[in-house]
Amino acid sequence: MDWNSSTKGFKAFLRLEKSLSPNSIEAYLHDIVKLQQFLDFKQLSVTPEQITLSHLRDFLKWATELGMSLNTQARVVSGIKAFYKFLVMEQVIKVDPTLMLEAPKYGRRLPDTLSMEDIDALMDAIDLSKAEGQRNKAIIETLYSCGLRVSELVGLKISDMYLNDGFVKVKGKGSKERLVPIGGKALREIASYREHDRLHLNIAPEASDIVFLNRRGKKLTRVMIFTIVKQLAEKINLKKSISPHTFRHSFATHLIEGGADLRAVQEMLGHESITTTEIYTHLDKHYLREAIIQFHPRS
Questions:
Q1: What fold, for 116-294?
Q2: What residue spans in the chain does CATH classification 1.10.150.130 cover?
Q3: Which of these is catalytic: 75, 169, 235, 245?
Q4: Is 245 marked active-site?
């Protein structure tokens, strides 16, 4: 089977069997085109059935020499693997040459972290004379105080706030609930918002238990929270790329830098695996050196 007929069959499989979108199908086919371009460049007359692991490893070397990023290489490898699984399924080939092919490893990009000065500047930039001012201040304080995901923030309920105990109940991914401590400052800002602003809204029945509402008395959208954060960052000319998640990242980073146990941070963030929480341990060398000097028995 030549490349043209095999890719046509693969395209039909992706569309009919996998029900993928046209854009996704195009991306898969583009990965196969990359491999064909390599074969043309090397002047190799090789059919899909004749491709070997050696060919594929040479292809990745060639891709690196061309300057293809590791992220792109990993995606292309994924597409080629899918193509050869299809050929095995169709009994075009018996042995999958991609079985021993490893995708390039690439690190996760760490989001920017806000310093305490950044957070104070963002808070100070909120115009409390505006109708939404106190609400926005309470939102920013809650994001940082509790390390919430934006979806958790917009879904936060009054009935899930245990004010006397200093905890809020949060519904996270997979509808899993957890208790998260909330600081006194965040509680005061929320109380001020509820007493002076939220109280005067014409609240929709379905949003009566939701903490943060828009001017129509309805639940805020995720996009609105992103907009609030972006506008504040622009207002203070912050030279960092931030989003609501940046406050969650800063919350965890500052806790760990302050000596918090990684397991406790994992619990507060609602991470299923501690390996996810470990992304927040990108501490500076000075802090790590101080920690070693303080706690290592040989120091």
A1: hpI Integrase; Chain A (1.10.443)
A2: 3-89
A3: 245
A4: yes
Whole-prediction pTM: 0.60
Residue ranges matching CATH 1.10.443.10 in the chain:
116-294
196 in catalytic set: no
Phi-psi region of 230 (alpha: psi -120 to 50; beta: other; left: phi over 0): alpha
pLDDT tens-digit profile, the chain (299 residues): 899 999 999 999 999 988 888 888 999 999 999 999 999 999 999 999 999 999 999 999 998 888 787 878 888 999 999 999 999 999 999 999 999 888 776 555 556 789 999 999 999 999 999 999 999 999 999 999 999 999 999 999 999 999 888 999 998 877 788 999 998 999 999 999 999 999 999 999 999 999 999 999 999 998 999 999 999 999 999 988 888 989 988 898 888 878 888 888 888 888 877 766 766 665 444 444 555 556 556 54
Q: Is 149 a catalytic residue?
A: yes
CA angle 9, 64, 69 (to 5 degrees): 80
Active-site residue (options: 135, 248, 249, 254):
248
- The residue from 28, 84, 193, 280 that is catalytic is 280
- Active site annotation includes 176: no
Query: Which pair of structure tokens corresponds to residue 268?
Result: 């507060």
Q: What CA–CA distance (Å, rounded) separates 76 from 30?
A: 8
For domain 3-89, say whether CATH 1.10.760.10 is its number. Answer: no
Q: CA quadruple 154, 157, 163, 169: dihedral positive or negative?
A: negative
Give me the catalytic one of 137, 149, 249, 254. 149
Catalytic residue among 57, 130, 173, 215: 173
- SS3 call for 220: coil
